[in-house]
Design brief:
alpha/beta; 14 strands
């Protein structure tokens, strides 16, 4: 199937619309009490801050001319207390903001993670994992920060503007018009630059995703990079991705930061206009009983500063909104990704099974019009062991993935004990199956934790018994802390064979009725493989098993062998019958024997 790569920008399925933004507010509503308290504290803080210029004006214009020293001291103390109260209120609001922001981040990230857990293999097959990681970590952080701080601050700044406007109107309606004169210019700039900002920020988000994808890929492949001396070449590729990211981030920043000098320039022009207007145009408004009201002029200048402060803040918040919009698009793209494999409506529990497996005219396509499995049919009786062999890419692993319902069949049906897999719940199906895939994965934790992963209520004794059955106990007991030895990420420090044996014990512990081994012994050396075969032979008794293997010596004793070629069962039978037929299986088996003899 087509796969998005680290150097390919991801196209959005649908453009951003305000319905998506409204949809994001569900995370805000959950914390409406905290947000209401933040609003209340912010409004109180703003009102207290707005009192300061009025106190100053009253002291300058009224108390100082009257030499009312005692009142000046009282108001001075009040002025100090107002500012002190503002500091404590802002601190309390900040703490609530941090709590709300982190809670929203947790909620949003949980929703994305839970949806990712449900997505089928086809989703992970089609894109670098680093791009998925970027959405869960970086994008969620930015969006949640905007929803708690940016959005709330935008509303608060609008409230501040209204309050400041009221205070200015009570002082001088005429001078208020002077302060407002520069506002249309600012609004015009924002409107003209909006499309450009959105385009640059979308590009920057794409480039950041590409950077993370390539970084993730190189961390996982660091050993291969060093083995082939690719450090310089990879650094060059990474540097190119960083430059592309920087280019679009800078373009977005250039446009965004144009707001600040424009707002600052307008604020200075307004200040000059106030002084000019006070002297020449509206001087009667600022003269009372023959005395120029210097305090009133000072207050208007202060209010003009406070008025343009929120305007600049709203400009900053607008830039954050542009970022949040580009991130929201991608977060909702994940949340809206259809779950290709899920419980169908009305699906029931799969009862305890005996292990009969039927493929009824199964057709499967990764991409429409390109069948990988072509009308395959077979019937496996309970307890029968089936080996799947054939060339790479023939469809062996696809067949067992369809049996595990990691993918849905395109046409036909897969049945277990007569139950169509489409009609039963995934959990009830996979609870009775044991799957060991070719790509062995070891989680961080102890060896005991890894063995117990698929059956959390298993006792230590049961875990040890499973390890002994596959002869993993032979090396585990010799480790420093035995079964409680800590494993590193992806099992670093363990050999490939050791990781596979631990994974094998994990699968056997689940006591499945159907066992699937997809290249289960591919990384086990010949001596260890002999021990593993002895261990699993007892387990396979009474259980239906499917074994995908390239090493044909491991499947000689299977009840039946399916030779898969180009999506069909080209040959079928036990080892002796297929060898006597001298067909495709015979050629494959004899060629392997010759290779082994040549190595010896």
């Amino acid at each position: 199937m087509a796969r998005n790569k680290y150097n390919v920008d991801e196209e959005l399925d649908a453009p951003f619309n305000w319905q998506q933004f409204k949809r994001s507010l569900v995370y805000v509503k959950k914390y409406k009490k905290q947000i209401a308290l933040m609003f209340t504290l912010s409004i109180i803080s703003s009102l207290l801050a707005l009192l300061s210029p009025r106190i100053q004006a009253y002291i300058i214009d009224t108390l100082i001319p009257r030499s009312a020293i005692s009142f000046i001291i009282v108001l001075g103390a009040g002025y100090f207390l107002v500012n002190l109260a503002t500091v404590f209120i802002n601190r309390k609001r900040g703490l609530i903001s941090v709590y709300t922001s982190q809670s929203m981040t947790t909620d949003m990230r949980t929703d994305v993670f839970e949806h990712l857990q449900k997505l089928g293999f086809d989703y992970y097959d089609s894109r670098p994992h680093g791009k998925i990681l970027t959405r869960v970590i970086n994008y969620v952080n930015n969006v949640s920060d905007f929803l708690t701080n940016g959005l709330i601050n935008a509303i608060l700044q609008l409230i501040n503007l209204v309050i400041i406007l009221i205070f200015m109107l009570t002082l001088s309606p005429k001078m208020t018009l002077v302060v407002l004169a520069g506002l249309p210019v600012f609004i015009l700039y924002v409107a003209l630059t909006k499309p450009m900002q959105r385009r640059f920020r979308q590009k920057a988000a794409n480039k950041q995703s590409n950077v993370t994808a390539y970084l993730s890929e190189n961390i996982n492949g660091a050993k291969v990079t060093q083995a082939f001396a690719r450090e310089d070449m990879n650094s060059g590729i990474f540097d190119g991705l960083l430059k592309e990211n920087r280019f679009f981030k800078l373009r977005a920043s250039y446009v965004a930061h144009g707001m600040y000098p424009i707002a600052a320039m307008l604020m200075r022009v307004v200040k000059c206009a106030i002084y000019i207007a006070a002297v020449y145009w509206f001087r009667d408004d600022f003269i009372k009983e023959g005395i120029v009201q210097i305090g009133m002029i000072t207050a208007m200048v202060s209010y003009s500063n406070q008025f343009w402060g929120p305007i600049m803040q709203i400009g900053t918040i607008y830039n954050q909104l542009m970022d949040a919009m580009s991130y929201l698009e991608r977060i909702f793209q994940v949340l809206d990704e259809p779950i290709s494999v899920e419980d169908n409506e009305g699906a029931g529990e799969l009862p305890p099974i005996k292990g009969r497996v039927q493929f009824d005219n199964v057709l499967f396509e990764y991409e429409k019009g390109t069948p990988v499995i072509k009308r395959v049919s077979f019937d496996v009786t309970p307890g029968e062991s089936i080996a799947l062999v054939g060339p790479t890419g023939a469809g062996k692993s696809t067949i067992v993935n369809l049996l595990s319902r990691f993918y849905n069949v395109t046409d036909g049906a897969v049945l277990i004990d007569g139950h169509d897999l489409q009609d039963v719940t995934l959990k009830s199906l996979r609870r009775q199956m044991g799957v060991m895939q070719q790509d062995t994965f070891i989680f961080s934790g102890t060896i005991m934790d890894n063995i117990r992963y698929g059956r959390l209520n298993a006792t230590d004794e049961e875990c040890i018994a499973a390890a002994k059955a596959v002869h993993a106990d032979d090396f585990i007991k010799d480790m420093e802390d035995g079964y409680f030895t800590e494993t590193k990420e992806r099992g670093e420090g363990l050999s490939a064979g050791q990781k596979q044996l631990i994974s094998f014990a994990r699968t056997l512990l689940s006591d499945p009725r159907i066992l699937i081994l997809d290249e289960a012994t591919s990384c086990v050396d010949t001596n260890t493989e002999r021990l593993v075969q002895e261990g699993i032979s007892a387990l396979l008794k009474g259980r239906t098993s499917f074994i995908v293997a390239h090493r044909l010596s491991t499947i000689r004793n299977c009840d039946r062998i399916f030779y898969i070629n180009d999506g069909i069962i080209a040959e079928e039978g036990n080892h002796d019958a297929l060898m006597a037929k001298k067909g495709l299986y015979y050629e494959l088996y004899t060629s392997q024997i010759k290779e082994l003899m040549a190595l010896e």
